[in-house]
Each structure stands twice: as structure tokens, then as C-alpha cells.
């Protein structure tokens, strides 16, 4: 992941470069993960109640706010899926891939990456201990989920740095 | 009961007094990045980075942090915003 970068190409475009094959595979599997957002565990995490005690307010929220929020989340996933159709090998050939997309899609990318991480976390009941584990059982599906959460998190971190102005480098054309 | 000749004036309360303060609370979860949570606090509340980081660390170490207090409608708005960023946020009536 040492070559992974998220940088502006110009004022209107962002490029993710240095995407290694395993991360590319994770990104291409984003849609499949995001489709699990309506599974009971993921739904509870992505669309929590606004209060702990007010059943009436919670019911109203779930009726009025949750559909709007779900639409926002679905829309972010669709934007990223469209952007990912432009995923292509870097030139000159490095064994990595890159993708360039409109700068206005940055929030959609952060939303989709974070949704996918949270959904994987819920589906595999990932705990803080799992996230910090170093003795990984490579044959377990949960381990694979944790690795995917970390990889997508690494990419999300680069987006956060971009948004915080900590990544001011510009990608070469 | 009122005594004859004494006019009783009912105690009135201002809108602010009637509007019991609500707390917006963010809970820890094992997945959200610390840097991401800090960024969200800066974006949603306009907090300076130092304050946003302090609140994020409180969420991380104590399991929850009271990130804002005020009127009910504004609290709802903030919970909506925080949940839109996929933070575990809820509002509760202030006990103070």
C-alpha cells in the first residue's frame, strides 16, 4: 500500500493511484458489501434511533428520516460504482491501478468506504480486539473481513487527509 | 388560594426555559477512524481541530462524549448530520 495516493489532478478532479490488486478487488466488491446495508445488523448500525428512551420520536425518525438517509447512502454507493468503471492500469505499467473522478465525488467516496467498513464490521461482529489483533487466523472469514476493513480504512484515511489539507501534493498528469 | 385584595401574577417562563436542554451524545464504535470522527466534528459543529480531537478522544476512551447541548430542534439537526456521516449519535434530555 506504500504507493497508494489520493491527490488532486486539477481543481476539478481527484486521482487514486497505486491501487494494488487486492485493494482493487476490495473496491470492486464494494457494491456487494453495500447491498447488505438492509440486513438486520447492518441496518441497526447504519440507521440507529435518535434517542434511547422516546419510542414515539424513534418511530417518527425511522418513518421520516431513515428513508432519506438510506437514499443518501445508496446514492453515494452508486456514484462510487460509476467512478470505478474508470479503474485502469497505471501508465507506465506498475502492476497497480488508478482511477480519476470528479472532486465533487469525494464525500460520496468517504461515505461509501465508511459504510462498507461498518457493514463488514456488523456482519462479522468485529470488535475493538479484532481490529487490533496481530495473531490473525488467515483461514477465517472474519480475518478477511478485518483485513478489508483496514484496507478500506487506509484509503479513507487518505481522503480525510486530503480534506484536511494534509495532502497537498498534486498528481502528475 | 388567592387572598382577597391580592392580585396573583402567574409565574411565566421564557421559551428558553421551557425548552429543556438536549444533549447530543456520540458513542464509540470499533470501526470508525479517529481521524474521520475528528473531521466530522469539525464539519458538523465547526469546532476547531483541538476541540474536535478532544471530543473524539473522549468518545474513544470513555465510550461516549457529550458533543453539544441546546435546543431540541437543533439537537435533532445535529444527530441527523452525525448519523449521515455514520457516527453513532443520539440525543437525550439534559438532567442538569
Folded structure, characterized:
The complex is a heterodimer of chains A (173) and B (96). Chain A is of the alpha+beta class and 173 residues long. Chain A has one domain (8-163). In chain A, 55% of the residues lie in helices and 12% in strands. Chain A has helices at 21-28, 30-34, 40-46, 55-84, 106-123, 128-132, 141-163; strands at 5-10, 13-19, 88-89, 97-102. In chain A, helix 4 (55-84) packs across helix 5 (106-123) and helix 5 (106-123) packs antiparallel against helix 7. Chain B has 96 residues and is α+β, with helices and mostly antiparallel strands. Chain B has a domain at 32-93: Ribosomal protein L7/L12, C-terminal domain/Adaptor protein ClpS (Ribosomal Protein L30, Chain: A), CATH 3.30.1390. Chain B is built from four helices and three strands. Chain B has helices at 15-18, 34-45, 49-62, 72-84; strands at 22-27, 64-70, 88-93. Chain B starts with 14 loop residues before the first helix and ends with a strand. In chain B, 31% of the residues are buried. Chain A binds chain B through residues 45-53, 65, 69, 72, 110-111, 114-115, 117-118, 121, 126-128, 130-131, 149, 153, 156-157, 160-161, 163-164, and chain B through 29-33, 35-36, 39, 76, 79-80, 83-86, 88-92.
Throw out a few tags for this protein:
heterodimer; A: 173 residues; alpha+beta; four-stranded antiparallel beta sheet; 7 helices; 4 strands; B: 96 residues; Ribosomal Protein L30, Chain: A; three-stranded antiparallel beta sheet; 4 helices; 45% helix
- Please tell me the overall pLDDT of chain B: 88
Beta-strand residue fraction of chain A: 5-15%
- Per CATH, what is the topology of the domain at 32-93 in chain B? Ribosomal Protein L30, Chain: A
Largest sheet descriptor of chain A: 4 strands, antiparallel
Mind telling me the C-alpha Rg of chain A? 18 Å
Name given to the CATH homologous superfamily of the domain at 32-93 in chain B: Ribosomal protein L7/L12, C-terminal domain/Adaptor protein ClpS
- SS-based structural class of chain A? alpha+beta
Q: For the largest sheet of chain A, list the strands in their spatial order.
A: 1-2-4-3
CATH architecture label name of the domain at 32-93 in chain B? 2-Layer Sandwich
Q: Note the main sheet of chain B.
A: 3 strands, antiparallel
Residues in helix, % of chain A: 55-70%
Oligomer: heterodimer
Mean pLDDT of chain A: 93
Largest sheet, spatial ordering of strands of chain B: 2-1-3
What would you report as the Rg of chain B, rounded to the nearest angstrom?
19 Å
Amino acid at each position: 500500500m506504500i504507493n497508494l495516493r489520493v491527490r488532486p489532478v486539477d481543481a476539478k478532479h481527484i486521482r487514486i493511484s497505486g491501487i494494488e490488486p487486492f485493494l482493487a478487488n476490495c473496491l470492486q466488491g464494494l457494491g456487494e458489501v453495500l447491498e447488505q446495508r438492509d440486513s438486520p445488523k447492518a441496518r441497526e448500525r447504519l440507521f440507529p434511533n435518535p434517542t434511547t428512551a422516546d419510542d414515539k420520536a424513534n418511530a417518527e425518525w425511522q418513518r421520516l428520516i431513515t428513508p432519506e438517509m438510506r437514499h443518501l447512502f445508496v446514492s453515494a454507493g452508486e456514484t462510487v460504482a460509476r467512478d470505478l468503471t474508470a479503474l485502469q492500469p497505471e501508465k507506465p505499467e506498475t502492476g497497480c491501478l488508478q482511477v480519476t473522478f470528479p472532486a465533487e465525488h469525494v464525500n460520496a467516496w468517504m461515505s461509501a468506504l465508511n459504510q462498507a467498513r461498518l457493514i463488514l464490521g456488523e456482519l462479522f461482529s468485529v470488535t475493538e480486539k479484532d481490529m487490533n489483533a496481530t495473531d490473525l487466523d488467515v483461514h477465517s472469514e472474519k480475518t478477511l473481513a478485518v483485513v478489508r476493513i483496514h484496507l478500506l480504512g487506509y484509503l479513507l484515511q487518505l481522503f480525510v487527509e486530503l480534506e484536511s489539507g494534509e495532502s497537498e501534493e498534486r498528481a502528475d498528469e | 388560594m388567592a387572598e382577597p385584595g391580592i392580585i396573583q401574577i402567574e409565574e411565566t417562563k421564557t421559551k428558553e426555559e421551557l425548552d429543556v436542554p438536549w444533549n447530543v451524545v456520540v458513542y464509540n464504535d470499533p470501526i470508525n477512524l479517529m481521524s474521520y470522527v475528528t473531521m466530522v466534528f469539525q464539519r458538523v459543529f465547526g469546532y476547531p481541530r483541538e476541540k474536535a480531537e478532544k471530543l473524539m478522544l473522549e468518545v474513544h476512551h470513555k465510550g461516549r462524549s457529550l458533543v453539544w447541548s441546546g435546543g431540541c430542534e437543533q439537537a435533532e439537526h445535529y444527530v441527523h448530520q452525525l448519523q449521515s456521516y455514520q457516527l453513532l449519535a443520539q440525543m437525550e434530555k439534559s438532567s442538569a
